Amino acid sequence: MRTSLKIDGPCKTYLTEAELPKAWYNVRADMKKKPAPLLNPKTLKPVTFEDLRPVFCDELIKQELDENTAYFPIPEDILTFYKMYRPSPLVRAYFLEQALETPAHIYYKFEGNNTSGSHKLNSAIAQAYYAKQQGLKGVTTETGAGQWGTALSMACAFFDLECQVYMVKCSYEQKPFRREVMRTYGGKVTPSPSMTTEVGRKINAEFPGATGSLGCAISEAVEAAQAQEGFRYVLGSVLNQVLLHQTIIGLETQTALKKLGVKADIIIGCAGGGSNLGGLISPFVGEKLRGEADYRFIAVEPASCPSLTRGRYAYDFCDTGCICPMAKMYTLGSKFMPSASHAGGLRYHGMSTILSELYDQKVMEARSVEQTKVFEAAETFARTEGILPAPESSHAIRVAMDEALECKKTGEAKNIVFGLTGTGYFDMMSYARFNDGTMSDYIPTDEELAASFAKMPKV
Amino acid sequence: MRTSLKIDGPCKTYLTEAELPKAWYNVRADMKKKPAPLLNPKTLKPVTFEDLRPVFCDELIKQELDENTAYFPIPEDILTFYKMYRPSPLVRAYFLEQALETPAHIYYKFEGNNTSGSHKLNSAIAQAYYAKQQGLKGVTTETGAGQWGTALSMACAFFDLECQVYMVKCSYEQKPFRREVMRTYGGKVTPSPSMTTEVGRKINAEFPGATGSLGCAISEAVEAAQAQEGFRYVLGSVLNQVLLHQTIIGLETQTALKKLGVKADIIIGCAGGGSNLGGLISPFVGEKLRGEADYRFIAVEPASCPSLTRGRYAYDFCDTGCICPMAKMYTLGSKFMPSASHAGGLRYHGMSTILSELYDQKVMEARSVEQTKVFEAAETFARTEGILPAPESSHAIRVAMDEALECKKTGEAKNIVFGLTGTGYFDMMSYARFNDGTMSDYIPTDEELAASFAKMPKV
User: Which of A17, A20, A84, A385 to mutate to test binding with chain B, by most B CBs within 10 Å of its CB?
Assistant: First the structure.
């Protein structure tokens, strides 16, 4: 019986709604060497505002291209919406610490207490707001695990915008209930690759029975946006604008840690396209770049889709269909088709250009982990901390636990902070496989990666 | 665009962990006319401590039978566990108010922000604690919608107890993912009526293809507990002990309203067995009974299972198998088989004896609502407040909205408080029916009820 547990402070630290950050933080302003610019795939020159106008909302393009403004004020209507579910709690994982018998102090920023089930709502509401401001009819997007599509459906319902979602096919099939949540919010969901777009038909022809990837779904959504009057495309990760909106996570964490008088030693997040990790670490990276404090940052990715740990740092297409701008990033090649791993949200071939550059500058580390080990961590976390985590988030849990177990060996009482991006309520089919012992790990071979690299553009 | 929304206070009021109530409140202590005692079905005399020992944990029997002690201190280990997910927020429904254009102020106490998805965890952890204290090996229980079974699995995982759950068959089939959550927490789940117990086999023989009911599942769980050494039965609703533990909801609400300087006019909750409603209103009922304040209380039940609004106030069996004590309560008859309504947690033929007595004394009102109207309210709530509610909780939302719309007619700015007991993430099949327009309403006929009443015991 767990009678010995000593809780010497609050489990959960909530800021007040009045303490909500009033501006997002743009880490590029503090980077001496900036991320390489996006390139127009036709001209191979840096993209301009005009290049991007047919695809993105005007205000969002400004945010995308601005590498000097450190703070962007959050519009009042977005702050109002944020109050629906923010500030999110910073939780001290007393129960997990006890189970691990570690001297480390573990904290997690929990973004799952909203119906989208993740941090995605932070950027969805911002992008829907700017689309409405611009007088658009609706937006198109892709979704992997379904969190982003749900978040965008919620945001569009709030602003009365039409929402068209291309959902990675394997997630669409694994998560029928996620679809229904989107439908309840009025979202229109299509499995990708579909036969409704040119690029979808092409991918289906080239890879019959393809289970889809974020790269494919992006191409389809971009095409659909351009084909309809009054529509623009919005993206849930990778882009600078998305990382910008997600800094609300890191800014709240920074304030909460200050309140607690705690200095983080290691900050950990899972990385698919980079939105959660970038949002969480940006304000701390800023401190590090300005020489105010030192931190270790660890990006955690699945061994099945190891963009940072086994990818190349080069210009590549952001989407499988090669219709989006090219980005210099750590990439497995835009033709890489990850296996139907259960962490749908991490099945992206590339990585945010900001995070890629920070990794290249060795400001941030990266680690890849295997799926079964991730679910072992998820189960331990669920049973001790009482929250059933999303498979994506569980990648961060795995490494946080590994670091805490390392502290057990060394006796160090490090402060470990990780991002718990979401809940796993719609991932029970994956949990079922884990419970049944039928979950498999997949790691791409060097040959597979080499074949994918060979198809990358020569820029 | 919703730019006009004025938020003149916090959306969410969180108490600090230090402000957590330190004792549960027993409303029977303030009732002049007490609820009628449980009867031993063999002797027809009030049950004694010894009568109940083979079925329930000792400490819980003391709580069950004590009608005079007003406050029971909450053991330290339970308070520690509560800090994992409590205090829960009291939310001002600014966005819903705006959508309804009502002068009313609507508040809801949100109990869904934990993995069990509902308030059930409040009593589960208490019951698991007392079972562990008594040195038991494990517990058996029933579950309707699955929230209680999940909560108990979580609590048993925490205290390393075995957990056997009999799940109402129609919910078991409608909610495969809910089962997996229980399994992830180590729970063993059996659909009820099953062939693993004598009473289950009997019910299956009498009603071939029975979709189950809470009454059946209770009988099976009680039988299973008695058949195994070191096991006891625990129940997620109806009993006095459960309402006692759930008063943490009402006590926190009371404190939060005081902090806000708000006096509630109407307090609303859904009622299946009565645990959430009883827990929410008890402290306010106490104020009313002591003449300190006046409130309207409204119990909301499904039209498909209208225990209070169309039942009889009489002694009846609490379970379909007639092996539990008899209770004087509003009941549709223990042989009543409700239709496979989607609000699995409200499919109980009877009602807490405390709430039954309060209803009979006209301290509390009751209202029944039809399923499609409930889902209409759920959809509006989801789209405005951003939380996808459980079908059970949505019964309370329906009546809160109706009362707010009444205020719109009269111009009164009443303070309406309701219990939002849980989230609907595992109820997407019901939402799908609603989205598809294939949801049906069912209301039992007078003849059906008369036939069920005829089978009730003559006490």
Answer: A84
